[in-house]
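Structure representation.

___
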Amino acid sequence: MGSKVVSTKLTEEEYGKLVGLCSASGFTVSKLLKKAILERMNDEVIREQPPAPKPVIKNEPKVVHTPQAKNIDQSTDRFQYY
């Protein structure tokens, strides 16, 4: 696979800023531009990937047992002895 050339035009002011940035970062103009382009492309790939689905937590229905008071006839014994 061969390499391709990408070019653009900058004003004198823009080019001066680019050269200053390259000097400060220790890159050549070509290396800095390639690095910037590749980083931007990687950022786009990450943004295009759909986020991982969030786990679905289902609330199971809860069975609540409420004790019911039984009506006890006062005339019967509550305890039986044998």
